[in-house]
Design a protein that fits this description.
By secondary structure, this protein is of the alpha/beta class. It has helices at residues 16-25, 42-59, 71-75, 89-102, 113-136, 149-159, 171-182, 216-226, 240-253, 266-269, 271-276, 284-306, 321-332, 378-400, 403-412, 419-432; strands spanning 4-9, 32-38, 64-68, 80-83, 141-144, 165-167, 191-198, 201-209, 260-261, 336-343, 356-364, 367-370. The chain has a 6-stranded parallel sheet with strand order 3-2-1-4-5-6, sandwiched between helices. α4 runs antiparallel to α12 (284-306), α6 crosses α14 (378-400) and α15 (403-412) crosses α16 (419-432). Bound molecules: nicotinamide-adenine-dinucleotide (NAD), the ligand O=P(O)(O)OC[C@H]1O[C@H](O[C@H]2[C@H](O)[C@@H](O)[C@@H](O)O[C@@H]2CO)[C@H](O)[C@@H](O)[C@@H]1O and manganese (II) ion. The site of manganese (II) ion (MN) has 5 residues, from loops. Belongs to the glycosyl hydrolase 4 family.
């Protein structure tokens, strides 16, 4: 079988070791020749690379690892680019969360003003990676899960319309795993789902087992009592902030009793509750820096110091196996059904054709084939129209370097109470992002 070469863009990410371990776990069904790490922060990436090299030598000596900050070295002769960059790193995530909170508005990395701020930074970084891939490996596919995926996807649709880029998010996958556990299934893969929306803004409308049995009533019954919470204590659930989010899904679901919501809708339906329950001096960025970042870099340093990965607490990111499923679908034309972020083009028949929507697709060697969704109800359609407006205006603001359009985008967000609050937040965000955003006129 052909061995595939992969570039992980954002090699210094906290998710890189878990993804490498997950790739190693799938070598039989997805053989790998070389894994290349690419990052624009040499030092950060080096710690991850040195530890992963020791780990690979011990567990899969046939797989080569190369780490570089040089685009030619990193992007030539590869089949897939798996992109998970965070432009501005956690320092800027902290600003994205704390600046809106200072103005009494939701402070979140992908929703509301924080998401717009992160989007204005990510577009440049993601486009740069698409361009490197096309220059050095024009036949390759980019699997993008860099956030904010909604804005990144709209930017690549508009600014790189012919690129081989697939945008995907793991939140529906994470929620489906919880749903499956909650109704006694072994895996989300026992479920066939219908879902529509935008990224971090969608609803399940139908969930069945492989025999066609309707699973919605039992999942809804659980969500009406407990949200998506389980009592299994999964890694994510051990974190109080994620726990709150899973529980809050109960109130989010009450808005439409026939569907099941993405947890991120809480930021749009209950912004007052979210702000009340936020600590403006210690946000999710602080939790992640003190938790996941410290743990991953600490474990990598331990491996380097000991010269062995034996006994390491770094574990496979099982959950990230969707990335292998996606790469395999393209490599072997499996036509796997997956939720992808794609241009609508009539799939949702009563919705803007150029909107980037998250819907089921069949994925094969030609890329993604969206499945038809049909008409959606007024409540969801109206919410989505407003949010698509926010996302499109942000990309237009980036392209045209327009202060006015970014102010409009912020004002249109359901999370922002008025144009004057939007303006105050925008002025603070411009100051904080002066090293990253295009200059706004
Ligand atoms: N779509 C999803 O469902 C999903 C799930 C989890 C994480 N993510 C995303 O994955 C990304 C990584 O998350 P993390 O928490 O591990 O962040 P992280 O900060 O640990 O890692 C990101 C890396 O990207 C690098 N980087 C920044 N700008 C770059 C550029 N222009 N070129 C190359 N490298 C660059 C940074 O130096 C850093 O090493 C984020 O965008 C996050 O939102 C997405
Ligand atoms: O606050 P963070 O950095 O921990 O997470 C933000 C991300 O949340 C989602 O990804 C989750 C995923 O759903 C979960 O199952 C597990 O793998 O952890 C991921 C990250 O912790 C979301 O889909 C991403 O877009 C966010 O970046
Ligand atoms: Mn996501």
């Amino acid at each position: 079988m052909k061995k595939f070469n992969i570039t992980i863009a954002g090699g210094g990410s906290t998710f890189t070791p878990g993804i490498i371990l997950m790739l190693l776990d799938h070598l039989e069904d997805f053989p790998i020749g070389t894994i290349k790490l690419y990052d624009n922060d040499k030092e950060r990436q080096q710690t991850i690379a040195d530890a992963c090299e020791i780990l690979l030598n011990e567990r899969a000596p046939g797989v080569k690892l190369q780490a570089s900050t040089d685009p030619k070295t990193a992007f030539e002769n590869v089949d897939f680019v798996m992109a998970h960059i965070r432009v501005g790193k956690y320092a800027m995530r902290e600003q994205d969360e704390k600046i809106p909170l200072k103005h009494g508005v939701v402070g979140q990395e992908t929703c509301g003003p924080g998401g717009l701020s992160y989007g204005m930074r990510s577009i440049t970084g993601v486009l740069e990676i698409v361009d490197y891939m096309e220059k050095y490996s024009p036949q390759a596919w980019m699997l993008n899960y860099s956030n904010p995926a909604a804005i990144v996807a709209e930017a690549t649709r508009k600014l790189r319309p012919n690129s081989r880029i697939l945008n995907i998010c793991d939140m529906p996958i994470g929620i489906e795993e919880l749903m499956a556990t909650n109704i006694g299934l072994k895996s989300r893969k026992e479920m066939v789902v219908k879902y529509y929306g935008l990224n971090h803004f969608g609803w399940w409308t139908d969930i069945r087992d492989k025999s066609g049995k309707d699973l919605m009533p039992s999942i809804i019954q659980h969500v009406e009592k407990f949200g998506y919470s389980t009592d299994t204590g999964s890694d994510m659930e051990q974190e109080a902030s994620w726990n709150d989010t899973f529980k809050k899904a109960r109130d989010v679901q009450a808005l439409d009793k026939h569907t099941l919501p993405n947890t991120y809708l809480k930021y749009y339906f209950f912004p007052d509750y979210v702000v009340e329950h936020s600590n403006k001096d210690y946000t999710r960025a602080n939790e992640v820096m003190a938790g996941r970042e410290k743990f991953v870099f600490g474990e990598c340093q331990n491996i380097i110091d000991k010269g062995t990965a034996e006994g390491t607490e770094l574990t496979i990111d099982e959950h990230a196996s969707y990335i292998v499923d996606l790469a395999r679908a393209i490599a072997f034309n499996t036509k796997e059904r997956m939720l992808m972020i794609v241009e609508n083009k009539g799939a949702i028949s009563n919705f803007e054709p150029t909107a980037m929507v998250e819907i089921p697709c069949l994925v094969g060697s030609e890329g993604q084939e969206p499945l038809s969704v049909g008409e959606i109800p007024r409540f969801q359609k109206s919410l989505m129209e407003q949010q698509v407006g926010v996302e499109k205006l942000t990309v237009e603001a980036y392209e045209e370097q327009s202060y006015q359009k970014l102010w409009q985008a912020l004002t249109l967000s359901r999370t922002v109470p008025s144009a004057s609050v939007a303006k105050n937040i925008l002025d603070d965000l411009i100051e904080a992002n002066k090293d990253y955003w295009p200059e706004l006129k």
